[in-house]
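Deviations from the work plan: none for this task. Representative record:
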Amino acid sequence: EPEVTQTPSHQVTQMGQEVILRCVPISNHLYFYWYRQILGQKVEFLVSFYNNEISEKSEIFDDQFSVERPDGSNFTLKIRSTKLEDSAMYFCATSGQLNTEAFFGQGTRLTVV
Amino acid sequence: GENVEQHPSTLSVQEGDSAVIKCTYSDSASNYFPWYKQELGKGPQLIIDIRSNVGEKKDQRIAVTLNKTAKHFSLHITETQPEDSAVYFCAASDSSYKLIFGSGTRLLVRP
């Protein structure tokens, strides 16, 4: 069964440092998403990406966040200057069509110290 | 924007019993309602979904019902098994590029 792959599985970083979270989407999928889940809380939408541009973003996705698909394969989320409150599980998700099943990766646990 | 409320936050049932989880949504434009199961240390996995032109959908032991007038949708699991123990999330989407999730229900099935 096709799956979304995320790396790393766990990232520990110092406050103020930049982090890049990576995702390899399912090969024929066109819609890419990042969600985050603070420990014990609901899954929150961050951003969606289609046709090499951001389609929609939430209030959480401020200027410190960026996404790109640099090589047509990996889909990345960059946090420029991490804050303690960025500590969360970050999930990449992809779908083949709009408003259909979104397949989630295993997540990257980001810990900012 | 859309807001999804989910109840209960925790649910404990005896193996073999049924479990029901309920969600309400606020945006009448929402038309796609998936349910995800999240096991410890894993990402959410779709278990069933329903669209607004359907009132009920069933897949083996799992069923989902939708009441568009009341903006309610529910997940029903029959003949529960210990492996059904997980956190379940409902979500809603209005054909935009995002899912809005409920707060989750931790289901425990006691053997």
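The mean pLDDT of chain B is 95.
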